[in-house]
Amino acid sequence: MFYLKYRPKTVEELDNTKVKEIIKKLLQLQSLPHAFLFFGQKGTGKTSTARIIAKAVNCLSNDYASSERSESRSSRSRQTRQPRSTWQARTVKNIEPCNTCRNCLSVDSSSSPDVIELDAASNRGIEDIRNLIKEASFFPMVNRYRVYIVDEAHMITNDAFNALLKTLEEPPSSVIFILATTNQEKIPKTILSRCSIINFGKAQKADIVSMLKKVAKKEKIIIEEQLLSLIAQHADHSFRDAVKILEELATQQKLSYEEGKQFLGLLKENFFEALQKKDLKVILSWIDEFSQSGGNVKYLIEQLLDELRIALLAQSGVKTDEGIDITLNVKDIVSLMKLLTEAYNNLKISPIESLPLEIALVEFYNQHKSKVKN
Ligand SMILES: Nc1ncnc2c1ncn2[C@@H]1O[C@H](COP(=O)(O)OP(=O)(O)OP(=O)(O)O)[C@@H](O)[C@H]1O
Ligand SMILES: [Mg+2]
Ligand SMILES: [Zn+2]
């Protein structure tokens, strides 16, 4: 599976440019916070980055290893409970994990006794967290740092979060906590204020395309550049989704733009293309063909609204346009959105699935036909 094979293993391999710079600086300054909160959409590299950090600080052949050698073991143990800032001031250059030493390999194979990944979806209660806190008070067994990577952190119960507060505030200096979540708003404020927060946001189209190019090159896949942009658009702002689509297209040998587009059934694009032909017959035939071939109207309307919203925000100057080319003005976008929302609500009561959408389009044409630009 490409998405496992190409999981970033070094800071440099992270295609999320903003996050890459932040992590690089923190590691170079050797001023890692003792608790992180990584938040952002699925498939943006939270888990991968957490593992890279765990490897970097424990690697046996980067500058973290040499800076440890220059400190005596006795001074290390004396300082165990002191704030790290008092002893970590030097900057280092070689911060990348080597990915070949014993410590790096054990993180990759999830067999490190000191790098503990737990899924809060199934270890969310107070007992689980108490065990974790107790364990965290011991020295790392074979590494320099004990790193706890807690995925789906928003699933931790309130009691358990409360139990964790003190440890997050004053953890043993050889411990790093990395909480990762897609739902930052479900993390209590008291926890947030004790963590260094890194926003992974959504994967940007340009970053996705750059990641796809690298994977395609390594896999010797010859794919049209235009199709890479299309994949990026279709990937729901997730690197993982994008690389999965690439793999699917490669397996199916649909590597030209036209083949790829057809295979992905890029509904939104095809819909807007038909809509912008300014011909009611064209768009109604498109919908007919779509529903005859088993298309899901509810999903289609959701996709259309999502795309219109992006266009609206772009045209209002709120966001740069990452969406598809929609040549409608703001007024037309708004009226189409209203009609589609109404159609969406009517889906439940319509005897024919495609009917509400057809009605919406007829109405849109009647009201706005003359304003549809080419
Ligand atoms: N920054 C990135 N650069 C390149 N590829 C990435 C990046 N982030 C994610 N990927 C791709 O997506 C896959 C999943 O990444 P990861 O598990 O780190 O995401 P996540 O943010 O933890 O997702 P989730 O919220 O679903 O747990 C990786 O194996 C890799 O193929
Ligand atoms: Mg994850
Ligand atoms: Zn290493």
Structural class: alpha/beta
Helix-strand pattern: HHEHHHHEHEHEHEHHHHHHHHH
Question: Shape, please?
Answer: elongated
* CATH C-level of the largest domain: Alpha Beta
CATH-derived architecture of the largest domain: 3-Layer(aba) Sandwich
**Major sheet characteristics:** 5 strands, parallel
Bound small-molecule species: adenosine-5'-triphosphate, magnesium ion, zinc ion
> What number is the mean pLDDT?
86
Number of helices: 18
Instruction: State the helicity in percent bands.
Output: 40-55%
If strands are numbered along the chain, what order do they take across the biggest sheet?
Answer: 2-3-4-1-5
Tell me what portion of residues adopts beta-strand conformation.
5-15%
Distance between the termini: 42 Å
So, the CATH homologous superfamily of the largest domain? P-loop containing nucleotide triphosphate hydrolases
Using DSSP, what is the number of strands?
A: 5
The CATH topology of the largest domain is Rossmann fold
Give a structural overview.
The chain has helices at 2-5, 17-29, 46-58, 63-69, 73-78, 102-108, 126-136, 158-169, 189-192, 205-218, 225-234, 239-251, 257-264, 267-275, 280-292, 297-315, 330-346, 355-368, and strands spanning 35-40, 115-119, 146-151, 175-181, 196-201. It has 374 residues and is of the alpha/beta class. The protein has 3 domains: 2-201, P-loop containing nucleotide triphosphate hydrolases (Rossmann fold, 3-Layer(aba) Sandwich); 205-264; 267-371, Zinc Finger, Delta Prime, domain 3. The longest helix has 19 residues, at 297-315. The protein is elongated, with a radius of gyration of 25 Å. The structure holds adenosine-5'-triphosphate, magnesium ion and zinc ion. Residues 59-61, 97-98, 101, 103-104 line the site of zinc ion.
